[in-house]
Amino acid sequence: MPRIEDANSLSLAVYRAKFLPPCSGIIPHNDAAQGPYSISFESSSSITAANFESCFDLIANSSANAYAGSSIGWSPAKKRKEMKLPDLRYLLLTDLNMRIQGFLSFMLTYEDGHEVIYCYELHLSEAVRRQGFGKHLMGLMEATGKNAGVEKSMLTVFVENGTALKFYQRLGYSKDDYSPEPRKMRNGTIKWPTYAILSKSLLE
């Protein structure tokens, strides 16, 4: 069985043991009223209904307008369906009261013939932004990709989201060869893409 299919066929426990670095421990926080935080690992089938809805709400609250204004469009039903893709995995950031404060979803998959780990979503609540949690979650995902032996890490970002673009660039991501390019229309106007595909090599 090919490597990607073999990896995605593993049970959640075996997948975690084989590919993920330690990620379920407590993350201390200097505000005792908010922290400590913890990270747990789930699949699209093991995530609880309540946590699934919390993740969906984070997407809707932070990105629904960006989706709606892009060529992708915003459809709650389609987004929920995507979030339930069988091979999708979740890293959930929870607070002291076990409330979801952020998450990263990813998949080991193929992109244009390459074996990759693809970041589907990364969202944090306002309470935990700019505190290093996004970088920590990305590091866990990238380590998973390296342990699985894939070529690179990939993600999609809206071009209007300058803060996200700078964040990913600081982590070493750059525009992928397969990112959409501007198109010249018949009337001579230029149609600029509303999103970019970024990637980062995971090969040593």
Walk me through what this model shows:
The protein has 204 residues and is α+β, with helices and mostly antiparallel strands. The chain has 6 helices and 10 strands, in the order ααββααβββαβαββββ. It has helices spanning 3-8, 12-19, 49-68, 76-83, 133-148, 162-170; strands at 26-27, 37-43, 89-94, 100-111, 114-124, 152-158, 174-175, 183-184, 190-191, 195-201. The strands form 2 sheets. It has an 8-stranded mixed β-sheet, with helices on both faces. The longest helix is centred in the N-terminal third of the chain and has 20 residues, at 49-68. It is globular and about 55 Å long. It starts with a helix and ends with a strand.
Largest beta-sheet characterization = 8 strands, mixed
Strand content: 25-35%
Compute the number of helices: 6
Mean pLDDT across all residues, rounded? 90
Q: In which range does the helix fraction lie?
A: 25-40%
Structural class: alpha+beta
Low-confidence stretches are none
- Let me know the number of strands: 10
Radius of gyration: 17 Å
Distance between the termini: 25 Å
Question: Given the C-alpha coordinates, what overall shape results?
Answer: globular
What is the H/E order? HHEEHHEEEHEHEEEE
Trace the largest sheet across and list its strands: 1-2-3-4-5-6-10-7
